[in-house]
Each structure stands twice: as C-alpha cells, then as structure tokens.
Amino acid sequence: MDFSKFKKSTTSVWGGESDLKVSGAVTSPIVNSVAFAYNDVDHWHEVSLGKAEGYIYSRNTNPTVAVLEEKIRLLEGAEAATSFATGMAAISNTLYTFLTAGKRVVSQKDNYGGTSKIFLDFLPLYNVEVQLCDTTDFDLFEKEIAKGCDLVYLETPTNPTLKVVDIKRLAAAAKKVGAIVVVDNTFATPINQNPLALGADLVIHSATKFLCGHSDAMGGVVAGKKELVQKIYQYREINGASLQADPAYMIARGMKTLELRIERQNASALKIANYLKAHSKVSDVFYPGLTTHPGHEIAKQQMSGFGGIMSFALDGGYEHVKKLLTTLKLVHLAASLGSVSTLAGPPRTTSHVELTEAQRKLLGIPESLIRYSVGIENVDDLLQDLDTALASL
Q1: What are the CA-CA distances from residue 242 to residues 190, 235, 247 (Å)?
Q2: What is the pTM of this model?
Q3: Domain 258-391 annotated CATH 3.90.1150.10
Q4: Which positions are catalytic?
Q5: Beta strand 129-133 with 104-108: parallel, antiparallel or unpaired?
Q6: What is the pLDDT of residues 369-381, one digit of tens each?
Q7: Phi (first) and psi of residue 311, to 5 degrees
Q8: Which stretch of DSSP H or E encloses residue 284?
Q9: How far, in Å, CA of 35 to CA of 384, rounded?
Q10: Between vectors from CA 249 to CA 246 and to CA 255, what angle results, nearest 5°?
C-alpha cells in the first residue's frame, strides 16, 4: 500500500499492518516464536544473509516488531527503522555504533539525563571527544561543528527545560563537515515534528513515552537513512538490546491513537501553560507554545504542534515543589511521560535522577522545577486541580 497519499492518522492505524494478518484478523498478531523454521536449507541461508525476506531469530528480527518499525518508518518519512528494548538502548546503541576511539561528537548541554551521563561519563572512557554547547547558542554550535566532528546529537524540545534547537540550521552546518546528525524526537513525536525532513540523518524515539501512550510497555526506535540504520541494527543484533514481540505489539497498538492523543495534549498543554504563566506563585513556565518562549519562532517553523510536556518553576524552592506535587490529585508522581494520564515530578527524581544537584545546576536545571506531562483528561479538571494545589502553597 502506498502511504504517501495518506495523512498521519491513517498511517498510524494502517502502517505495517497489511503484511501480517492471520485468518482475517483485523489486528496483527503477537508472534512470540524465538526461531523460525525452514524446509529448504538454501532458502534459509538466503534469508540469514539478508538476500531474501524472512525471519531467523527474534533477537535479530521478528514479525510483530517489524510492524512497529514500519509504522515509525512511514511516520518519520525514513528509508529504514530498527527497534530496541528501551529508549536508552536506542540512544546508546546509536552513539556507540558511530563513536569509536578518536571520534568527536558535538551536542548540547540540555540533554535527557541518561544521554548526558553517556556524554559526561561513558564516552570519554573510550577516548571519544565530547563537546557540549550551550543549547541555544547556535553560533557556538556552528563554530564547534566547523572544527570537525563525526556526529552531531540534538534533542528538541529538551527534557526537562523545553528549549528549542534549530534542527535545519545545525544539520546544514553538520553536512559541511560530513557529520551524521541524530535527533531525539521523543517529546515532539512524528505528529508534531519530522527531523529527517529538516536535514537530520537519524531520528530517535523512546517509544515507551508518547508512541505507546499508556505507560505499559517499553521500547525504543531509530529511523533514517538505510545505510546508517543497518549499521545500528548490526550493532544491536550482537549487543542484544532487542525489542520483544509483546511490548512491540502494545506500542504499535498505542500508536493507532497517536494523532488523536497528541492533538488533545497539544491543546491542553497550551491552555495550562498560559494559566501557569499568569499565576503569582509560578516564577517561570517553559513551553515552546508560549509566545514569550525564547524558542517560539523556531518551534513554529519546525513543529506543527508544541507537544504535551511543559515544566514550570515555583517560588519557594523545593519545599513548595514537594507540597504542590503531593497535593495534586489528577496526576501520577512518576518518572515517565507521554501517557494518557497526567504525570509529574521534579528532575531530581525523573529526567536527571542520574546526575548530582551540582551537575543539574551546571545544566541550568533549578531544584524548584516541575516537569508536567499532560494527559488526555478534561483540561478544565486539570486546571482546577492545579489551581487548588497552588492555592495551598
């Protein structure tokens, strides 16, 4: 089926599904087989070499997992996609595939905490040079890229301060030096942003979050140029961070309502962000949909919606953070995001739990910050919940 003529909501439902049907089933089955048998040894050998279509062993490829990969490939407009057991597996396998001893990577200071840990602590152990730039200082970014690098890693909007990175501008700078451009698109989702169309080579998602949407399955995906994805796949194939059939099925099922959820979360988040911006007990709100956000103009250019995540800082510091969070009723205090239910927490227990308070301060993350992931609840109920909690401070 040619999906180029369809909208994203249709692709989310039908993408990848047509090749894996059993006895007229209207949904793709979960194939939990570890291995796949062949009657012809020569055909088996052709499949094992990748010269013929088929499956050999589920650590490598699996029919149910392939459905999810195809959905992502189509939604991101990629040549190929491969999947992983978690979002961090997708990030780490991608970085370790291309960053070997003597290589240089340029990235931003505002990355997800686990990603920052790789840049700050792990890659230097393997003699990889890491240059982290002030996230929105694009002139500095370009200067560092121009010095020569092998990979440029971007995350936008950033976790948890919602800074916006100019993908098109930095991808153009990377092309001049032959660097691979990787973008973590977890916060935006392919509904709101398509980095490959802006010049990126690879796009990464923690599929655990918005793609799944129900906080009940973990996974990660990488999509992009076929040659690059194949290299990552070969690395993952041997290192073993494979996605299993059951979570792949659940993520693919969640994706069928992706656009519906994202449209609701976009609208609710913007309304809540404007409410918080005007509240006397909130010192700052970080959401790219606000016209006062420093990255709003860039976000308008590269995003079709501003997402369901925001963060805000309270007057009164961390003690007020704890009181507000424990007073809220329509929220799970949990270290995830992108679910149908609203989730919230401070960076010290969510996005940057791996880092020390000093490291968080260095990255510009205040202890008074709350990351708030808007669910699909009625927005007026969420606003009332926030209003009651803020009044208790």
Answers
A1: 22, 11, 11
A2: 0.95
A3: yes
A4: 59, 112, 184, 209
A5: parallel
A6: 999 999 999 999 9
A7: -135, 155
A8: strand 282-286
A9: 53
A10: 145
